[in-house]
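Possible regression after last week's pipeline update?

I re-ran a chain I had predicted before the update to compare outputs. Posting the input and the new output here so someone can diff against the archived version. Not blocking, just want to make sure nothing changed silently.
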Amino acid sequence: MRKLLILAALTASAHAQSNTIVGLEGRLTNNASPTLFGRRGPAHPNGEIGMSYSYTMCNPGTVAMAWTAPMNPNHPMFAYTVVRESNGRLEQITNSATTYVKHAFGAANTSSTCGTCTTVGTGLRVGCSDTYGAGTNANRFYLGPAGEVDPWTGIWNPIGSYFDSGDPAVAPPASTDGVRSLTSGTTGVFVDAVRNRVTLNEQDLLVPGRLFHCMHIVVRGEDGDAHFDNLGHRQFTAAWTGTTWAFVNTGVGFTQGTVLNQWAGATVNSARNGEDDGHFIVASKITNNGNGTWHYEYIVQNFDNARGAATLRIPMCFSTVTSNVSFRDTDGNALNNWTSARVANELVFSAPLGNSLDWNTMFNFAFDANVGPVGGSVAIDQARIGAGALTVDVATQIPSGIAEVTTLGPGCGSPLPTLAATGGLPLIPNAGFGLQLSAAPGTLVFLLYSTQPANIDLGLGCTQYLDSANIVGYGVYVTDGAGIANVAVPVPNDLGFDGVPIYWQAAQKAGIGPVFGHFTISNGLATRFGCR
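New output (post-update):
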């Protein structure tokens, strides 16, 4: 696995992200003013509401940012999400398919915290900022489907787009001629005030917890390394007054970055498909149920990956018992939920056709397992063919240990003893696993271990890799005529060893040595029991 990761890194560095414009960078600096624009459906509290909010972005780069209105493709786009944290779970409560993306049409170029607002160039100039209010962002003349946008490159093709075909759609060839058919006049067909706007079920707003309105800006030609300051969120409250909904910003104010960081007690990591496609962000939260099982919660956010995700694979031991497996997406349609199955040493969640995890969307995955968490990674398989790898691995917590043997550092003294693993990896089970001590022939060697590592300078170039408070003697051995002593460390078929780390070091009795005047010591060795 490590060799594959190194190879992937070398391959990624061999070419650059396509369409990158050197010096181009956008930065989200605020979103605010959540505003109601109407409701539809049954009487409160069983209807839906349409809302929007403002944003401010700036240009901290070194070149001006193109900012021309549709049908020109060269402009930023802005995606909305509302997220709720309640009962220990973070969930997206906006339907990503029906909440459309805002297409920008002009930059005001005002002063900002990004630097001095320059007067050179067109679009959003260097050091300048632009703010679109909630009313402008709710204008459906500029709202289009997220599926038309490549969030990695920022490319949007106006030909055949929603704006090109109109609403209701016009007949060919007008639907693909590059001339805008969706006009300010035709938007009058939106007889309800919710369609295409940030869409929320009233029932979701009544659940106790914390609400966040989130924004994601997409800038055509911006390097992927600069994307993370394009995300931001802000906490707000929603209250039914008896006749309408009232929204108020609350909390600490605007926060840059993924809203997954707001999930109390969660571990959050991300990875992307090299230079070919964007990031997935994975948050995990594991709770001890107190009955010999643990509850595993994952949120997978497709930040800016254009190919989307069709499979989430969580590694675990063959003997791990899972239960209470669940999945949640954003559309409320139980007929297109991802399914789950145990396949070999993985729990696999798979998407049905038409419900991939696409950008600006987060799905929830959960289960109980009879194994506690260890550090590892989950595999996310891409939903569509394209440049780059088929799978993105993201570090997180998993109910399965990876069997590993790692050298901690060198030994010291002469003659120098060494310590190495034999019999393969410390897999569960592996009766043939062991350690080999190499030292001077016929020498007394003490094998020590600890459950905690250390890095203690003993002087004279010697390092102790075992925690002094946890050192235990495993055994005393005499090397043979070749200077070898083989020590059996059989790994039992016991799931309780899954993920357990053991740290080893040996001391050789010498006439004169750097440690206590009579010992030389070996390199340190770390072993971790696991299922793969």
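Follow-up from reviewer: compared with the archived run. The helical segments are 2-13, 134-137, 162-165, 202-206. Marking as no regression found.
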